[in-house]
């Protein structure tokens, strides 16, 4: 386990950003080599990859003129899926406002969800919040395919807009290859029934330096989960008693919108999937202490209950998600299959409300409890024994309505 997690979270992987193919490709090749050494069958392509593309939209040019004077770019945030825009006061674009009395985040979200052209004036009292949103959203937009039509929203940090203005900008459209890594352990008597073990192998890449460190290694998030996937594949291959087909998949693109799990989930028949065990951040003790994992959507199916019965003679326990307000059940890579009725749950230990190393350059192997990872892997291996051997079948999750 230490060899695997040290490799995935090493500086050589450069933070495993899904948007930098040459960096995340190194991690993909390593995971594929592990799957091959174990003896898994490739799931999609012979190199164990499941490849697809997304499109990244980024601002190419920008010019905002107010009464003939150019407004500083730091006071403008553009959210657009159109190739180019040229607006002036005669274009009839609606002008909206976020006033000082409003909830900025709520109003911002409501405006963007309308998906209509607009110019939005933001009261200068929200400058600090605006700057934070600008830093997060100003890097561009990711879409699964080239937009047809689209809309543009221009946010301007100002109370009022003069009667004479012009807003011009253009976007670049760049196709980026993405790839899940997946291997299969074929089943015997119930080969048409699938049990999926998953985790995401991408992270957030290179950040602004903290001291001399700029690489977000993502040891807990989610090299720990991928280490579990590889370890479980080795365990079940050696056991050789899987009546159901086991699919081990390392997802890409979780950090930029769960694109890898969306693609995988939309290209498999959900009715054929008996269960999905998604593993996310198991490198530290849960709030329940050692020998524990919490399960998102615990009561949505009886998967965790069945697994608890398998480890009843051990010290290990599976707990319901202690962070219900975070709505984690539909915020990780289990979400799409869960929405389609699969008992698909995420297993984790991260204390999400207290982990100050999350998404920083400090998420390194030295901060993890390796014994915690080991006990979690062992509990999942034992807990899924009856499901893997085809002796028990978890109940289905209620499907989300369209």
Automatic annotation (TrEMBL):
Pfam families: Peptidase_M28
Annotated GO biological process: proteolysis
Family matches, as InterPro entries: M28_fam (IPR045175), Peptidase_M28 (IPR007484)
Peptidase M28 domain segment(s): 180-380
GO molecular function: metalloexopeptidase activity
Top-level taxon: Bacteria
Name used for this protein in its record: M20/M25/M40 family metallo-hydrolase
Upper taxonomic lineage: Bacteria, Pseudomonadati, Bacteroidota, Sphingobacteriia, Sphingobacteriales
């Amino acid at each position: 386990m230490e060899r695997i997690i040290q490799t995935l979270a090493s500086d050589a992987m450069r933070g495993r950003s899904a948007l930098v193919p040459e960096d995340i490709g190194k991690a993909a090749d390593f995971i594929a080599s592990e799957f091959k050494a174990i003896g898994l069958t490739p799931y999609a392509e012979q190199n164990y990859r499941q490849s697809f593309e997304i499109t990244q939209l980024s601002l190419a040019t920008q010019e905002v003129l107010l009464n003939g004077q150019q407004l500083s770019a730091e006071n403008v945030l553009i959210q657009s899926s159109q190739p180019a825009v040229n607006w002036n006061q005669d274009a009839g674009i609606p002008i909206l406002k976020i006033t000082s009395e409003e909830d900025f985040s709520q109003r911002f979200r409501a405006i963007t969800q309308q998906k209509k052209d607009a110019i939005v004036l933001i009261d200068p009292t929200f400058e600090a919040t605006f700057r934070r949103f600008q830093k997060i959203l100003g890097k561009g937009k990711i879409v699964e395919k080239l937009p047809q039509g689209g809309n543009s929203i221009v946010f301007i940090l100002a109370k009022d807009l003069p009667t004479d203005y012009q807003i011009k900008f253009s976007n670049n459209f760049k196709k980026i290859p993405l790839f899940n890594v997946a291997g299969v352990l074929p089943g015997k008597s119930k080969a048409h029934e699938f049990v999926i073990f998953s985790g995401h192998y991408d992270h957030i890449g290179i950040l602004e330096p903290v001291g001399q460190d700029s690489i977000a290694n993502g040891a807990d998030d989610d090299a720990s989960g991928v280490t579990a996937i590889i370890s479980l594949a080795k365990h079940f291959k050696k056991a050789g008693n899987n009546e159901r087909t086991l699919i081990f998949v390392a997802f890409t693109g979780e950090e930029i919108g769960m694109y890898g799990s969306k693609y995988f989930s939309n290209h498999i028949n959900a009715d054929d999937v008996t269960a999905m065990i998604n593993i996310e951040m198991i490198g530290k003790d849960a709030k329940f202490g050692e020998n524990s994992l919490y399960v998102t959507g615990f009561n949505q199916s009886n998967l965790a209950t069945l697994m608890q019965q398998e480890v009843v003679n051990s010290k290990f326990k599976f707990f319901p998600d202690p962070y219900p307000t975070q709505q984690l059940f539909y915020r990780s890579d289990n979400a799409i299959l869960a929405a389609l009725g699969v008992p698909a749950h995420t297993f984790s230990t991260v204390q999400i409300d207290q982990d100050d190393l999350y998404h920083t350059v400090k998420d390194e192997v030295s901060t993890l409890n390796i014994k915690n990872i080991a006990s979690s892997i062992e509990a999942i291996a034992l807990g899924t024994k009856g499901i893997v051997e085809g002796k028990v079948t978890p109940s289905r999750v209620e499907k989300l309505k369209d």
